[in-house]
Amino acid sequence: MLRIALPNKGRLSEKALDLFETAGLKAEFSSSRALLAQLGPDFQAIFVRAADIPEYVADGAADLGVTGADLVAESGRTVEELLDLGFGRCRLAVAVPEESAIRHPADIPAGSRIATSFPQITRSFFEAMDVSIEIAPVSGATEIAPHLGVADVIVDLVSTGSTLRVNRLREVATILESTARVVADPAALADPAKREFLDEVVTALESVLRARAKRYLMANVPRSRLDEVRAVLPGINGPTIVEVADAGAWVAAHAVVDADRVYQTIARLKALGAEGILVTKIERLMP
Ligand code: AMP
Predict the structure, then answer these.
(1) CA distance 258 to 139
(2) How far apart are CA 175 and CA 147, in angstroms?
(3) Which of 79, 85, 145, 237 is disulfide-compatible with 151, CB 3.0–4.6 A?
(4) Domains recognised in the chain with CATH numbers
(5) 90: Cβ below 6 Å to ligand 1?
(6) How confident is the model at residue 26 (pLDDT cuts 50, 70, 90)?
(7) For residue 176, what are the contacts with CB-CB under 8 A and spacing of at least 6?
(8) How many whole angstroms from 137 Cα to the centroid of ligand 1?
(9) 54 lines ligand 1 (CB under 6 A)
């Protein structure tokens, strides 16, 4: 039985569970507070803190895990990244009080105190810039540190920037961009028996991510305008054209289209005289 480490709570947890479920791997808990669950016939899920997942995976306690790229980098552990899941997007940024004269991290005076819950990444970032700094380790609410005189600068995760603005802080640099990733234990990947199962999970997750960006569109279109319909509905290999019983001048066109272009596609099909347009979500899409 292979083991998959998933975040037990926090920002990544619900989306990770939902993704696995859509991919056909629904977590079956034996009780509501269980830290273990069965995940399909072949996997066991363990629910742990996102920050601990790189450790569990690197140590082989789990073969695969889902966690933030920021947490993988901070752990300093060697895991193999197999897939970018796209959610949990944020950046690790250097920020200073609004009124500060600092415009660039190189302006930060030697000996400055930097509050962060990412001490490893912060240390290597400033070492690479040859600026010597002191770390004030905190485990949350980093934004308050400059106002308490605990630090001059902070290094913290930002997604919209509104928390920084509310706390009158200004970003001066981005250290890294992060999203949720699927990571694997390199030893598990080197084992052919495990590798086969891990590749299957990744393929299933990829098929869900691909499907989320697409929609299945069906429309009745005039047979006389098929060439123009083909130009509007490129599909994967062009649209599927289906005969409609007793419809004479009409055929049905089916195609997989980009979700973010559905609106335009419908408008263009209508302009060609299309009727009965139907758009549905796709659960999984294998190329
Ligand atoms: P947790 O502490 O369990 O809620 O997970 C935090 C992880 O969620 C971070 O390490 C990031 O990978 C991700 N994340 C995405 N956006 C943000 C944000 N605005 N603030 C903090 N973490 C974020």
Answers:
(1) 41
(2) 22
(3) 145
(4) 2-87+179-211 (3.40.190.10), 90-178 (3.40.190.10), 214-281 (3.30.70.120)
(5) yes
(6) very high
(7) 69, 70, 73, 91, 92, 121
(8) 17
(9) no
In the chain, % of residues over pLDDT 70: 99
Q: State if pTM tops 0.85.
A: yes
- Mutation choice for ligand 1 from 66, 74, 90, 139, CB with most ligand atoms inside 8 A: 90
3-state secondary structure of 236: coil
Instruction: Among 6, 8, 9, 11, name the best residue to mutate to test ligand 1's pocket (greatest count of ligand atoms within 8 A of Cβ).
Output: 11
Go through the chain and tell me how many residues it has.
Answer: 287
d(CA 216, CA 201) in angstroms, rounded, equals 24
Query: Rounded to an integer, what distance in angstroms lies between the CA atom of residue 222 and that of residue 252?
Result: 9
The structure tokens listed for 242 are: 């289906």
Q: Residue 59 and residue 46: Cα distance in Å, rounded?
A: 14
> Among 8, 157, 162, 165, which residue has the most ligand 1 atoms within 8 Å of its CB, making it the best to mutate?
157
- pLDDT of 202 reads 97
